[in-house]
Amino acid sequence: MTIRSIEIRRAHIELVAPFQTSFGVETDRHLLYVRVVGDGAEGWGECVAMTDPLYSSEYVDGCEDVLRRYLIPCVTPDSTLQSVLDSMAAFRGNYMAKAALEAALLDYFTRLDGVSLATYLGATQTRVASGVSVGIQPSIDALLDVVGRYVADGYVRIKLKIEPGRDIEPVRAVRNAFGDDMLLQVDANAAYRVEDAEHLARLDEFNLLLIEQPLPEEDLVGNVDLVKRVRTPICLDESITTVEVARGALDIGACSIINIKPGRVGGYVEAKKIHDLCLSRGVPVWCGGMLETGIGRAANLALAALPGFTLPGDTSASKRYFTTDVTTPFELRDGYIDVPNGPGIGVTPIPAVLDAFTSSVSSIAID
């Protein structure tokens, strides 16, 4: 079981519609895939970094550089997953680059063993409740139209992106239009300051599941203050980068819910550690998304099938973002998406589709 090479593939895919958050508008994705090739199997990982360092300090071209210069040299022909993780730990940060390589290795090794990634991680569910993230819309009428279509599709939870000036009234309109029974939450992507606590408390009247990442990622102490002044549960996203940070945030009372994104925390092994910590403390978690194609979405579904993921995540159907996915598309059925149960992540790219999106491929020999 020798690892022979690691391939870096760059690709480009258009979104079905612009996706606007408090930090910008996305109309497409510049993709980076990692492929591990070895004796008897191959493994795929998807880098979730954006084109520009807006959501986090990482960006896709930077991730490629880090992979080539520092992370892929950690792999030897006889590497184990743990040996690579131990070697990568010497390099600070760069969680999204690390997660892409780790995902490809996980896919490779679990395929060799003939087990699914879901089984490897300890999944207890065969399907995952699916929520959908709704970007900031140009008008309330447009927002209600978009939400209405997702409700008709069967999504069990709606998440609204918000920012200062586009928060209270859009949320009020959605709640009034679709009723109190619809699971509804909001995501600020760090757009507010602790001084906005009184304003954010106005969201309490809408019976939201949570307010996600209201403050800058570094301001854990500010979240402690916010928790005391806002009744709606505070969920952290960008702030949580490691299990140690998660433990500290919970210890000081900075949040009561955590959104676990594998790319943000350095991979699925670290994501499981955060899950296990939260499960042991009775803290709900859910799996966030980064507009992944089918490769990344399959791995996220495996993670979201763990027992602590009690809130619907952002594991939406493929057609939510892409006209054509690089794998067999994931479909929504009665509000749920099936967890792949084949070896590894349970899916493989469709060669003709992937090639059509690909801009470059380079292979690095492992010796």
Structure explained in plain terms:
This protein is of the alpha/beta class. It has two domains: 3-113 and 350-365, Enolase-like, N-terminal domain (Enolase-like, domain 1, 2-Layer Sandwich); 119-338, Enolase-like C-terminal domain (TIM Barrel, Alpha-Beta Barrel), CATH 3.20.20.120. The chain has 13 helices and 13 strands. The protein has helices spanning 60-71, 81-88, 95-113, 117-121, 140-153, 168-178, 197-200, 220-229, 243-251, 262-265, 268-281, 294-304, 351-357, and strands at residues 3-21, 24-38, 41-47, 127-129, 131-134, 157-161, 183-187, 211-212, 234-236, 257-260, 285-287, 336-338, 358-365. A seven-stranded parallel beta sheet has the order 5-6-7-8-9-10-11. The chain has a four-stranded antiparallel beta sheet with strand order 3-2-1-13. A two-stranded antiparallel ribbon has the order 4-12. Helix 8 links the parallel strand 8 (211-212) and strand 9. Helix 1 crosses helix 3 (95-113), helix 2 (81-88) runs antiparallel to helix 3 (95-113) and helix 5 (140-153) packs across helix 6 (168-178). The longest helix has 19 residues, at 95-113. It is globular. The mean pLDDT is 97.
Can you give keywords for this protein?
367 residues; alpha/beta; Enolase-like, domain 1; TIM Barrel; 2 domains; seven-stranded parallel beta sheet; four-stranded antiparallel beta sheet; 13 helices; 35% helix
